[in-house]
């Protein structure tokens, strides 16, 4: 069955009344959490994991996709109106968007952000539609040694790229690896790192770690930096839509932002911050209105917002085809798959096409929903900023505790959640990145299984890890991530 036929089947799944409802709920939730500073899609999906256990996987992932895309849309609203990015990828939008709002052009800034997000999201979803099956087919060629090398590349690149230093990145990674190894060894049946605690024999519950790291640790950190002064909200005067000149100045940045965001989103550690920064720099360089930058240039809103949304679709390519998360949000989505007993990868395309293609089709539908939700209803979203932050943070913590108790009914899990939340808070305070911890925790079972399989097939010979061109290439890239920054620094010092 070709790609278009599978996509049409996906639309049949996504357009059922139940799944349309979940897509709408996800889009609304995503926009809301994008608007609220300090709360991102990763935290929201982590909080939703305990309560989606009774929901079918197709409906749950359609909702998660709405949350992911919606957060990209909603983050621009606070960036433009109060100069406070609601989501990390919206930082660059604040530079020009807030200046436009203060100059009375807030409506045009919100419009170019929403339309740019729609254009980039749609193009990036098209690229995902046709790229994912090709990558999935190629993934069938990977041997256990290749998969192990791929996980090593993921570990190395994420630990090096994210965080203030490589040492802190690797410390975070090793904490995640250690947590992932707790429990009974599947091959020998021996307990590992359980310290005689019976509750740890089944391992550290993934949902507990995710909720601890994002709900507890993140909220503690945000609350500790809470400033009582309410940011000034710039009123949107009337609804002066984009002028013909605005359209002329925006459509090229939309396309360039998409071209930057999608490929960077697919690589480990790419995220949304890097493509948005690159997009802003490119637009500043190419614009004929350089004098407006810093004063409210519309290109500085259009390009970064397009890059932000395209990157969100980009992270789904390695996630769905290889089971490889390239960001914190992707890591939590991978954990959600595992909660349903599913492992993303090439076999999922053939074993569960309804889920994969229903999810991809829902991205098109969600994009249309979000355009409708964000353009005319911006006044409603701005009112969310009036929710008192202390009550909001307290509510999230209570919701997290109820969710964990509802899933496990274990006092030990609640204590573990509090302990891991305190650890993740300390990590944030001292600059230790969180994504390496999550990716280490989630990928270590896959890495261990593939390593043992490869070594067993080769009767213990380590040379099997370096026998195929693919594994050599992945390991060489991992070494490049490790040593390239050091070599570049030495070359600059020598120059």
TrEMBL record:
Q: State the PANTHER family in the record.
A: TRICARBOXYLIC TRANSPORT PROTEIN
Superkingdom in the source lineage = Bacteria
State the InterPro entries in the record.
DUF112_TM
**What residue ranges are annotated as transmembrane?**
107-135, 147-164, 170-188, 200-223, 310-334, 355-381, 393-417, 429-447, 470-488
Q: What is this protein called?
A: Tripartite tricarboxylate transporter permease
One Pfam family matching this protein: TctA
* The organism's taxonomic lineage, starting at the top: Bacteria, Pseudomonadati, Pseudomonadota, Betaproteobacteria, Burkholderiales
Q: Where is the DUF112 domain?
A: 20-438
* Keywords, comma-separated and alphabetical: Membrane, Transmembrane, Transmembrane helix
């Amino acid at each position: 069955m070709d790609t278009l036929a599978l996509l049409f089947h996906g639309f049949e799944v996504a357009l059922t009344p139940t799944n349309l409802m979940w897509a709408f709920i996800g889009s609304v939730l995503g926009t809301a959490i994008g608007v609220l500073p300090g709360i991102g899609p990763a935290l929201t999906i982590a909080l939703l994991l305990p309560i989606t256990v009774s929901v079918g996987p197709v409906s749950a992932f359609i909702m998660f996709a709405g949350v992911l895309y919606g957060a990209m849309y909603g983050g621009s609203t606070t960036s433009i109106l109060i100069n406070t990015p609601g989501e990390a990828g919206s930082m660059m939008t604040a530079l020009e968007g807030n200046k436009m709002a203060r100059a009375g052009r807030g409506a045009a800034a919100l419009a170019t952000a929403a339309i740019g997000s729609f254009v980039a999201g749609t193009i990036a979803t098209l690229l995902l539609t046709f790229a994912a099956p090709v990558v999935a087919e190629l993934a069938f060629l990977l041997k256990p040694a290749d998969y192990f090398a791929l996980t090593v590349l993921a570990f190395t690149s994420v630990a090096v790229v994210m965080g203030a230093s490589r040492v802190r990145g690797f410390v975070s990674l090793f904490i995640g690896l250690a947590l992932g190894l707790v429990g009974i060894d599947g091959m020998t049946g021996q307990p590992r790192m359980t310290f005689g605690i019976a509750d740890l024999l089944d391992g550290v519950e993934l949902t507990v770690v995710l909720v601890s790291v994002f709900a507890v640790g993140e909220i503690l950190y945000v609350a500790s930096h809470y400033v009582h002064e309410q940011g000034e909200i710039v009123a949107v005067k009337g609804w002066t839509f984009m002028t013909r000149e605005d359209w002329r100045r925006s459509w090229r940045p939309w396309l360039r932002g998409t071209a930057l965001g999608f490929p960077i989103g697919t690589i480990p550690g790419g995220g949304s911050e890097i493509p948005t920064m690159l997009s802003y720099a490119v637009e500043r360089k190419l614009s004929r209105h350089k004098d407006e930058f810093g004063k409210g240039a519309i290109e500085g809103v259009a390009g970064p917002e397009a890059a932000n949304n395209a990157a969100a679709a980009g992270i789904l390519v390695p996630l769905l085809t290889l089971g490889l998360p390239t960001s914190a949000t992707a890591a939590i989505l991978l954990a959600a798959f595992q909660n349903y007993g599913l492992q993303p990868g090439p076999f999922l395309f053939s074993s569960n096409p309804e889920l994969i293609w229903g999810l991809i089709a829902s991205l098109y539908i969600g994009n249309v929903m979000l355009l409708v939700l964000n353009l005319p209803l911006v006044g409603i979203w701005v009112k969310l900023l009036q929710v008192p932050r202390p009550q909001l943070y307290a509510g999230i913590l209570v919701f997290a505790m109820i969710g964990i108790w509802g899933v496990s009914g274990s006092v030990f899990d609640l204590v573990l959640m509090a302990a891991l939340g305190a650890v993740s808070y300390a990590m944030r305070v001292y600059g230790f990145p969180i994504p390496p911890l999550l990716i280490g925790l989630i990928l270590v079972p896959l890495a261990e299984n593939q390593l043992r399989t490869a070594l067993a097939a080769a009767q213990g010979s380590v040379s099997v890890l370096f026998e195929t061109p693919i594994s050599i290439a992945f390991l060489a890239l991992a070494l490049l991530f490790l040593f390239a920054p050091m070599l570049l620094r030495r070359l600059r010092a020598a120059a």
